[in-house]
Structures are given as C-alpha cells and as structure tokens.
Amino acid sequence: MSTIRPWRTIERRKSRQIMVGNTPVGGDAPITVQTMTNTPTSDAKATIDQIRRCEEAGADIIRVSCPDTDSTAAFRQIARAAQVPLVADIHFHYKRALEAADAGAACLRINPGNIGSTERVSEVVRAARANGCAIRIGVNGGSLEKHLLEKYGEPCPEALVESALDHIKLLQDHDFHEFKVAVKASDVFLAVAAYQALAEAVDCPLHLGITEAGGLIGGTVKSSIGMGNLLWAGIGDTVRVSLSAEPEMEVRVGFEMLKALGLRTRGVRVVSCPSCARQGFDVIRTVQALEERLQHIKVPLSLSVLGCVVNGPGEARETDIGITGGGNNKHMVYLSGLTDHHVESQDMLDHVVALVEAKAAEIEADMSDAGKSTAMHAAAQ
To answer: How confident is the model over 282-298, as pLDDT tens digits?
Structure first.
C-alpha cells in the first residue's frame, strides 16, 4: 500500500562498495544490519546456536570475538555452520587475525595501528588478501590512542577522525582498499559529529553505531537518535545497534530503525495506537502478541492495529491489512485499505495472523513469478 513520495526520499552518501563474504556493503547495496555474539567463542555449539537465532531475526553480518587461540580454533567450525558472513573481532593480537582469516572469516575487525610493527600490518594484509577478507577499522571514543588524547585533551570528533585516517593510511600504504570504518562513541553528539566529518573525508563504506548505548529501552533510544540522524542525512552503509540485550534484539531494533526511514522493508511494519478509553479491544496486549507471532514473516507488508474509529479508518487505508475496534466486541477488518468484514474479539488475534500469513504467501508468490519472468526475459535476449 505504501507509495514513494519525494519528501520521504533519503539520498544516500556515495561510497565505494566492498564485499564482506558474499554480502555487498556500500555503493547502492542495501544497508546491512549487524550484531555480535556474546557466547564464549571457544564454545562452538553455543555460538552457532546464537548465530542461528540472529540469522532468523534477519542479521546480514555477524561479528564474533576472537580473543585467544581457543576461539580461533573454534572459528572454523562456526564459520562453516553460519549462513551469513562472519566478522572476526581482533584487537591487539595480530596472530589471531591471521588464524581467523585462515579459518573462514569474511572480515577482520582490527585497527592496524594497534597491532605493532609495519611487518605485522603487512602480514595481516597478506592474510586478508589471500583469504578474500575485508577489514573493518573500528575507532572508539573510549580507547583512543594516547598521543591523540594528549593532542586534543579529550575524545572529540577531530580525534576520532584523525585516528581513523591514520589507520586507513596504514592499509592504503599496503595497497589494501577493501575496508569499512567506524568512529563510535557512547556520546551521541560526539559520534554523530565524528561520522559527519569522516563522511566528507573518505569514500569508503561507514559502519554506524553508538557504542555502549545501554539497555534495551535506553540503548534503543540513544541509537535511534544518533544513527537515525546519520541515516536520515544519507550517511551509513551498515549498522550495529549496541544493546545490553540479546543479540537478536539488536537485529530487530536495527531493522525497525531502517524500516522507519524507508531504507529496508523486511517483515511486518506495524502501525498501532497507544490506546485510550475509546479502545474496543486491548490494543497493547494485541500488538505485543502480534509482534511475537509474526516475527517469522520476511516479506515486507504493513499492518495497522487501531483501538477505535477516530484514526483507525485513515490509518487502515494506508496499510495492507488493518483492524479497528468497534462496539459489541465486533471489529472492522480492512484489506488493501478497504473495509472488508467484521471479526469478533475472541477470534481476532488468530484471524489477523492468518490474514498476514496469507498476504505474505501471496507476496512471495508474486515475487517468485516476477523473478522467473525476469530470468526468462534475460535468457531470451
């Protein structure tokens, strides 16, 4: 039901594209959603189980920490089991980067300036190039280099950007260009200013994040304010919402952020009211139940859940499926913006789920037919 409107269009910053495994990042590729495992990487089974949950939530790329040899030893099994590209998170131990690259990492998260000599940087670049790995430079306001803190006195946008440019130069000096960069900070103002300045200075893909953002609610708000500002300005090619919550929740919040800005369209977009005394059914509990029961829907469609007829009909006209509360425990169902039929309260939840699942199957079938038609047309040329 949604229509592209000029005032709703975001013009993305032009960046060059790199590959993280088989996933393009930057250029005109969709903005990818990332998360990070928090299980001990040496426990391959637990890590794979967590990766599977993140994949089901829609994660495009997943980062896995590799702090020791037990972790890189398990990484090969983990990488074989994963269905999305994995980023091996390395900090200071360059040998872990070499091991992870050989074990199947699609990307290495490493700051070249933190691993020691030029020879070590050369070794990491050779391993990345030999294994088709990208590199993510990850500058963080909480761990800036000592000389930059002495120069600027405190973490500031100029310090973060200078750190990033120094690390970038180390890779470019080795003729390595398959990298993306992050300049994260837990302070929203600092992070946004740093990303804005870096976006003007380089053409590589940018990985967005507000680091150490907090718990599920507070971290979601901080991340949405900071990353939302940047995304609205067209800055950002891949995102990770850092929450003190389960990794799959980071993925869900990331997609909701992108969906709100019209930058990704995965799954059900729910339009619902906060509820009031006019509601004809329990809107809050209904929406909670629907969000849980419809997580498995991958195709994009919209659902409005409104408690009464004040704004209900207007919102329902803009969604694929809608329901508005009515009297006598009977509620109006809208299909493709038009009134269609009534449903009683006791049947409403199951009925809406069934309608969404049927609509999703219809959309999937249309997409499949369109894909076949395109392939046949291409073959005939």
So the answer is: 999 999 999 999 999 99
Strands in the chain per DSSP E: 18-20, 23-25, 32-36, 61-65, 86-89, 107-109, 134-140, 179-184, 207-208, 238-240, 268-272, 301-306, 321-324, 330-335, 338-344
- Using CA atoms of 190, 196, 202, 208 in order, give the dihedral in degrees to the nearest 10: 70
Q: What are phi and psi of 4, to 5 degrees?
A: -75, 125
Determine if residue 315 is labeled as part of a ligand binding site.
Answer: yes
Structural domains in the chain, CATH included, are: 15-260 (3.20.20.20), 268-376 (3.30.413.10)
- Residue 3: what pLDDT? 55
CA 222, CA 213: separation in Å to the nearest integer? 6
Cα 122 to Cα 99, 108, 165, 181, 208, distances in angstroms: 15, 14, 18, 19, 27
Tell me whether residue 276 is annotated as binding.
yes
* pLDDT tens digits, one per residue of 219-256: 999 999 999 999 999 999 999 999 999 999 999 999 99
107 is in an annotated binding site: no
Whether 308 has a binding-site annotation, put simply, is yes
Report the pLDDT value the prediction gives residue 374, as an integer from 0 to 100: 57
